[in-house]
Amino acid sequence: AAGVRLDGRGLLENREITVHFGQDYGSCAVSLGETRVLAQVSCEVVEPRPSRPNEGKIVTNVHITPMAGPEYEAGRTSDAQDELQQLLESNIKESRCLDLEALCIMAEESVWQLRADVTVLNACGNLGDACNMAVVAALKHFHRPDITVEEDGRVTIHSFSEREPIPTFLKKVPVCLTYAFCQQQDGELIVFSDPTDLEERVVMGKLVVGLNPHGEITSMNFPGLVMLDKKHISFCIMNAFQRARHCAELIEKLVEEDLQKRKLEVHPKGFLGKLISDEQHKRNLINGKVALMSIMSSQFQRVRDKMDVDQNNDNAIKHEMDESNNHDSATEEIDLMDDDNDKENYDEEQRQKDNVEELNYDEEKQKCKDDEDVETVDDDDDDSSSTCSSDSQFSIEQGRSASPRNVATDSSSDDSSDSEDSEEDVKESVNVGNL
């Protein structure tokens, strides 16, 4: 159908814009249809320019990742990246939308420098509008830390927990809008807004208009080879003015909503300050907060009771284990004592047995010795008897061969000895009688 594009949009119909803010201040992700862009604003203290000693600085940096499209390579700067860099500098930096004097810390010595890093995640057409909106939303959302300047010139930067951060003030919100042109067979130009990547490949040229909601044109670029007349430029500017007002209101609304959410969750002072105007709303919210606190307190008490029960169970288990260990130790000691007693009894029995064996051995030994003595005595008696018999035989034979004189002498001596013996016997008997 006439006037309908490939994705079903009209000629001047734009794709849906989605803005999400990150956890940190100044972090913003913008989706324009399938185009994805991420912007992050940071700050640092630097020296001012000699030509502007009381003004801060703002720096923009654009990076197109290889995942954005097959035509982009890692480590190489493309023409599209240079065009985006120039577009952001002319529409944001040269438009003076940011109060640079508010970034001055000490004139001619130190100022704040804001750095906006833009990363293109998916390039599906109209990167200029998406990058510009991401940078503006990130600057609007960014808060820098508060500072204190001492008398000696020292500068102290306070953390967000010590002091409330200072928001970035934008005097005017610059918006960038892109229009593409195609020439028909009759030579007439067709104008359509927010071109996709497929449409950008066949267009003859583009018109990029930068302006603020007050109708002030901040920049205007003409990439391409198309010749535009006053009628087409005026048409694009009038349409861009209406679109710029809508985009600026959307950015301010989303930033304000996100900051209010942060105040409700992080800053209780701002949360309670909002309740002063509406007393009934204040009561409801406070009651809800008290109820929430009571619920949290009950949950905490249940958790605490459970922890106490678990602790008691652990103590009981530990006590049982200690008792079991003590019982095992006592059992081991008793077993050791029984073993010692058994060992002592065994040693005593062994000693008694050894003594008995030793006594038996001594008796056997003594008996053997006595037997040997008896045998020795018998042998001696036999020897003596044999000796006596031989001696008597020898004396008889000698007597036979002796003379009669000797026999008479012997007999007389025997008689005298017998008489002496009889006299001694008489004397002993007399002595016994006297006693």
Automatic annotation (TrEMBL):
Subcellular location per the Swiss-Prot or TrEMBL entry: Cytoplasm; Nucleus
GO terms (molecular function) for this protein are: mRNA 3'-UTR AU-rich region binding
**Keywords assigned:** Cytoplasm, Nucleus, RNA-binding
Renumbered residue ranges of the record's region Disordered: 337-435
Where is there biased composition of kind Polar residues? 393-409
The source's domain of life comes to: Eukaryota
Q: Where is the composition biased (Basic and acidic residues)?
A: 348-370
Q: Please give a single GO biological process term from the UniProt record.
A: TRAMP-dependent tRNA surveillance pathway
UniProt domain Exoribonuclease phosphorolytic: residue ranges: 13-145, 173-242
Would the keyword NAD turn up in this protein's UniProt record? Answer: no
Tell me one Pfam family matched here: RNase_PH
> Gene Ontology terms, cellular component aspect?
cytoplasmic exosome (RNase complex); nuclear exosome (RNase complex)
Record's compositionally biased regions (Acidic residues)? 337-347, 371-384, 412-426
Protein family: Belongs to the RNase PH family.
Please report the name of this protein according to its UniProt entry. Exosome complex component RRP45
Species this protein is from: Hirondellea gigas
